[in-house]
Amino acid sequence: MLLGSDTPFTLGVASGEPSPDGMVLWTRLAPHPLEAGGGMPPRRVPVRWQVAEDEGFARVIRSGTAAADPAAGHSVHVEVSGLRPARPYFYRFVADGVASPVGRTRTAPAPGATVDHLRFCFGSCQKYEAGYYAAWRHIVAEDPELILFLGDYIYENAPGNGGVRRHLNPEPFDVAGYRIRYATYKMDPLLQAAHAAAPWIVTWDDHEVANDYAGALDEHNGDPVAFLTRRAAAYQAYWEHLPLRAAARPSGPDARLYRTLDWGALAQFQVIDDRQFRGARACQPPELLAEHRDYLVGVLDCPQRHDTSRTMLGDVQERWLLDALGKTRTQWNFLAQQTLMTPFAMIDPRHPEQGAVVHPADRWEGYPAARDRIFRRWVDAKTPNPVVLSGDIHAFTATDIHHPDHPDAAPVAAEFVGGSITSLNNHPGWRDEAKANPGVRFAENEVRGYARVDLSGKGSEVLFRGLADARNPDSAVSTIARFEVESGRAGIAEAS
Ligand code: FE
Ligand code: CA
């Protein structure tokens, strides 16, 4: 036991980024995960990896050795290739004479291949203190081929009271602090089991760095140079702890997370990053920036909000996305992203008679021109069956998205927010407020959970799966709503 512990695999194993011939296999050596450096010596350590067709590893078909590098927190990201499409595989690691748990993963179907069916689950927002991970137990039981996580994998907050458990370190600002925060989350056995059950596709939201940040500005409008230093540390720790490719590895405060993944001819996932490149928030009193005061979360409309030069994705990512929406040939096109896209304003408590007029500056609602360019692009480019999958709001919503220039015509897409794994949305009356927005078909903020999607050539069924009590690790789950989207007919066809 050179590493001085029973196992260096305290944070489990994971896979992600499935392609037709491979995927990323992940682990991180951390014999003492809550210590600085995970209890590892400050040198590179070799890690054997194996991929087999069977769970007993009788038929190992790929293997090799990777280096767990202290510069990457002794994480390992193996990009396996040369596998056959549309098949399950098993993988494990060996370090210091100790074998890791076995993970199950799979390859994507061959490019353009006909695929009868795909089941995937998606979720977001798993604040450690707000609950246990019963949702992950149930997601594993659904036996999905893919799991999508749409942001707020960790929360950066200092330990708080009133939850079911507490964060184990102070609010992180550097790589060492974020590593301990990820270790805290990843030591959870239910989360580890979900990573070991299927490949994941991930994107981040704000709390992987800090609440409601926008580009180089935190929620306090603090010094952007200091914030970018923090962002670099947070991005580094994010990459170290998730099954991402080397192409997503950050360079300082910059990282390229946006990408597409295809599932044969059936589906494409356009995964985007609406945090890193966003421009200034809309309709903010100028003194807030100058005086480093907290940004205004909800704003009344102002001309600046509609300025077409304002960006949510940054010009480069936006051009890339609009191009991808024109090129895609898959039958379904899922925009996998973090914050609510459907036009969705809230009620001003001082003027309830005015209806929903308060725009959340932190969401797409604060960047409507950028949002409308995507909505128009789906129509102009005839993107097949666009569906948006989102997180962030700690609620379930199912909405029809309408063309900005033809709001009374048939919808152009549907959007689903699959609840939160644990995080709370304590807003009484939120459901009623939500329904003040046209397009909202379902809204529920008092139940935690996730969404399950069963996709075929004919249509897709989306189930919202709600936990009886996210504070109970043994909580039951049930279907709280069911939706159908038909191929060739945008929007939600049926809700029950
Ligand atoms: Fe969240
Ligand atoms: Ca968020």
Write up this protein:
With 496 residues, this protein is of the alpha+beta class. The chain has helices at 134-142, 175-186, 189-197, 224-241, 286-290, 315-327, 368-380, 430-434, and strands spanning 13-19, 22-28, 45-52, 60-68, 75-80, 88-95, 98-99, 103-106, 117-123, 146-149, 200-202, 259-263, 267-271, 298-299, 332-336, 346-347, 356-360, 386-390, 396-401, 413-418, 440-444, 449-456, 459-467, 477-486, 489-495. Strands 11-10-9-22-23-24-25 form a 7-stranded mixed sheet. A 7-stranded mixed sheet has the order 12-13-15-18-20-19-21. α1 (134-142) runs parallel beside α3. The N and C termini lie far apart (56 Å). 52% of the residues are buried. The model has no long low-confidence stretch (mean pLDDT 97). The site of fe (iii) ion has 6 residues, from loops.
- Indicate the percent of residues in helices: 10-25%
Q: Order the strands across the largest sheet as they lie in space.
A: 11-10-9-22-23-24-25
Count of separate DSSP helical elements: 8
Specify the biggest β-sheet: 7 strands, mixed
- What is the typical, i.e. mean, pLDDT? 97
Radius of gyration based on Cα positions: 22 Å
User: Gap between N and C termini, in Å?
Assistant: 56 Å
How would you classify the helix and strand content by structural class?
alpha+beta
Tally of strands: 25
Approximately how much beta-strand content do the residues carry? 25-35%
In this entry the ligands are:
fe (iii) ion, calcium ion
Q: Which regions contain 5 or more consecutive residues with pLDDT less than 50?
A: none
What would you call the shape? globular
